[in-house]
Specification:
Number of strands: 6
Distance between the termini: 47 Å
Radius of gyration: 18 Å
CATH topology: Thiol Ester Dehydrase, Chain A
Order of helices and strands: HEEHEEEEH
Number of helices: 3
CATH class: Alpha Beta
CATH architecture: Roll
Helix content: 10-25%
Oligomer: single chain
Largest sheet: 6 strands, antiparallel
């Protein structure tokens, strides 16, 4: 990548295949919140020419997870366990904005909300989600090897 080229990432953010596929660009963030943009092309459209709802759900799932990432510990990973979406207005193809924030952080769960807006600030989609906190395996230790080490009958 050329020096100074914008990758769409912010410090501390995790790059994902979803971010790259959708072309999500993280604009601003802080502990527990994130603002992002993406510009869905015609390949993400539905039969009437608007953005397909599943694409908007993927965008929201991505940014809601990312806003939790900064609050999770280095040995933690997150997965979405539940997400509800409210489609308020059609999203036309073109640049869209997304905002996400953590509502509550627990020991095992994050409660988060997100929204998609057009460039005029009109609310298009709102979402709420629950993220489960999981423990990541330590680098260099295979999960299988860890289980065997704890089982005295193994081997």
């Amino acid at each position: 990548m050329a020096k100074g080229q914008d990758t769409g990432l912010l410090p501390g953010m995790v790059d994902t295949p979803t971010r790259r596929t959708l072309g999500i660009r993280y604009v601003r963030s802080g502990p527990g919140w994130l603002e992002a943009e993406f510009k869905p092309s015609a390949r993400f459209g539905n039969h009437v020419g608007n953005v397909q709802g599943g694409i908007l759900a993927a965008f929201l799932d991505n940014i809601m997870g990312q806003c939790c990432h900064a609050l999770a510990g280095p040995e933690q990973a997150l997965t979405t366990t539940e997400m509800s979406l409210y489609f308020l207005a059609p999203a036309i193809l073109g640049r869209l904005r997304g905002k996400a924030k953590v509502l509550k952080k627990g020991r095992r769960m994050f409660f988060v909300e997100g929204e998609v807006l057009d460039l005029e600030g009109n609310h298009l989609v709102r979402a709420v989600a629950t993220m489960l906190v999981m423990r990541r395996p330590r680098p260099g230790v295979a999960p299988q090897a860890t289980a065997e080490a704890k089982d005295p009958d193994a081997g």
